[in-house]
Amino acid sequence: MQDKNFTDIAALKNELLCAGWDEVACKVYIKSIRKQSISFTGHTTAITKNSFDKMCYLIGSELYTRMFKAAHFSPLQKLSLILNQLNAKIDVNGFLQISGEYRLDPAMPPHAYFLKYFRKLVQRAFLQKSLKDYVQNNGQTAKTAMKVHLLRSYIDKNNIEFVQQNFIGKNDFEKLLQYAKQAKIKLDYSTAANYHNRYLTNNRFFYPQNMKVQVTKSSRMSEFIVDLKDGHFVSEWQVYKYNTDGTVDSDPRHYNLQQSGEIANTESFNYGIPHGRYPSIFFCDNHSHYRLDVWHPVDPLIRNTITNRKNTYYWKTEKSYYWKTEKSYYVKDKEANYAGNYADVVKNGKRDYEAWRQVPDSKKAAVYLDFLEYCRRRLPLQNPGFAKYVKRIGN
């Protein structure tokens, strides 16, 4: 948008059209302006660029959401609209860089309607194959699929900052609990956190260092990874450096492998619906999580480098403690049919979290091995969480 005043509807409409909106979205915006008793006729009050920014440049805001939903575009076109407004470009290291005046609304919570709607658009735009398959087909759809995959990390960043900046607590987990309480939503801890407990191949896996928390209990859409020791978020965004122009420094040579655990174990916004303990109330095909989130295109070079199994040293994932059968929906997961030594200690939220934290660090490895065997003996029953294990051995 040019830095000028809008003195009539025609000028405003032209600016909106230049930003990629259609006639229907323009009508939604103009109607909203009129409701605020702001006139565009004659020489009455004008809309300045600054006030326009507040109402229209925040992706996910109430007004933006109304315009976005009303626009007569296909799901793929709506996804492209956001990417264009963010000036989203993939750099030489495969990292999505965004710039310009549009940005995600910092007041948008992790359970926001806009995120649900955006997620549904991704499911509809890429309905038949995995995101990885769409990227391999080349063409404009492939470019959009790749950028959509990479955009999820910016949604993660917005979610993390929303919780950290708007709630009070001794650590991030306490703030997350306060957010859930105030929003009157339930959190989910049921999906496995193997891929967020990677360890360097020159070390051993002793026990989980992090837990996964998803919003909400039924949709499991937004995701947070929490350090079990100090309750702080584990995120790539707490490691990244920035260039002088404000872009992310995506050169993997500028990051130490030993200090890149948060990049390896970072959170990931879910376009599909992960299979957790509780069924989703939203319609979605049974394989959406694997098509859109697991079988995804290549990650940026910085993360792909530190998690690549072809390297001598990399951040490795421990396999789950149970076996999977050929009938499982996990069958395309190359590691799915092998039992490992991983079991989540947190399955029921704060009570599991607190029970695990009460175990002295010097005893955690031994206690975890006994908990692991306890979980194996219970098969085919699910892992009940660490608090129930503690209660059992205490009786």
From TrEMBL:
It comes from the Bacteria. This is DUF3114 domain-containing protein. It comes from Liquorilactobacillus oeni DSM 19972.
